[in-house]
Design a protein that fits this description.
Radius of gyration: 26 Å
Protein name: Mitochondrial ribonuclease P protein 3
Helix content: over 70%
Organism: Schistocephalus solidus
Number of strands: 0
Largest sheet: none
Distance between the termini: 88 Å
Oligomer: single chain
Number of helices: 17
Structural class: mainly alpha
Length: 272
């Protein structure tokens, strides 16, 4: 019995010590992953996302990014990694609010966009559009389009439109909408064109766009109503009043339903 108790005690002591062992290596590993080091990333791409999240939000030197580009081109990385590394790096940094990293990547990618994949450039376009950096968005958009084959233009059409509709270039979206119609694509994913129109188009064109989608059996999304109500609320002109009433007429004729938050916005507009 005493021997049994002694063995159990030894096992417990060993297991307790064993469980404590990983704590120190994990701390060291965490510290190693807070700075940009492509060789560290390359050693284990399976955990790339978690490693990118751990990066300190500091401006990455151009030389380090150039080294990473060279490593990607020369190494035996899979084509998927070569195509998606920069996309994942900038998207994860953006989604986690690492603005210094994002700015360093934008500068680097915009200097030589042709060295990057279509997927990476689409991510950059999206970030520029969301950030209101339209002067940088415009040349990159045209550069991006010039490198697309007809087949790629169809494949990326919805992604391109989602970027364009955040900018004053929203009218470019109609080219891709036409491609989608000709190729029998689902048009619901292009309703963001209406949101772009609500923000940037003359009022007459807004209603022309509503009618265009209606011919394909689609009605405006809640995002459209929100953008339109916000616009007329800021405008408050006689013209804005007229087109708000026209929108309400359309809602009545087509029996379209809007959310309670939009109804509140409409009431507030007329009360003012």
């Amino acid at each position: 019995m005493e021997r049994r108790i002694l063995l159990i005690g030894m096992q417990w002591s060993f297991m307790s010590h064993f469980r404590a062992l990983p704590s120190r290596p994990l701390q060291i590993c965490s510290k190693m992953l807070t700075h940009f080091d492509f060789k560290q990333f390359k050693s284990d791409f399976r955990h790339l996302d978690s490693r990118l999240i751990n990066l300190d939000d500091v401006f990455i030197e151009k030389s380090k990014l150039e080294d990473a580009m060279s490593e990607l081109q020369l190494s035996e990385c899979s084509e998927y990694i070569k195509r998606s590394f920069w996309k994942r790096l900038i998207e994860i940094s953006w989604s986690h609010g690492k603005q210094n990293i994002v700015n360093s990547l934008l500068m680097f990618i915009l200097e030589s966009p042709n060295q990057h994949s279509h997927h990476t450039l689409l991510s950059v376009l999206k970030i520029l559009a969301h950030s209101g950096r339209f002067s940088e968005f415009k040349p990159l958009y045209y550069n991006f389009c010039s490198g697309l084959s007809p087949q790629e233009a169809v494949v990326f059409s919805a992604d391109i439109v989602s970027c364009l509709c955040l900018t004053p270039l929203y009218k470019e979206s109609f080219f891709y909408l036409d491609l989608a119609i000709k190729n029998g694509m689902p048009l619901g994913q292009f309703l963001c064109i209406l949101v772009g129109a609500a923000k940037y188009a003359p009022y007459v064109e807004v209603f022309e766009t509503i009618d265009l989608f209606h011919t394909h059996g689609l009605q405006p999304s809640n995002d459209f109503y929100l953008a339109f109500v916000n616009r007329v609320d800021i405008d408050r002109s006689v013209s804005a009043m007229h087109y708000m009433e026209r929108l309400l007429d359309k809602l009545s004729v087509h029996e379209w339903i809007i959310s309670s938050s939009i109804i509140t916005g409409v009431k507030r507009f007329f009360e003012r």
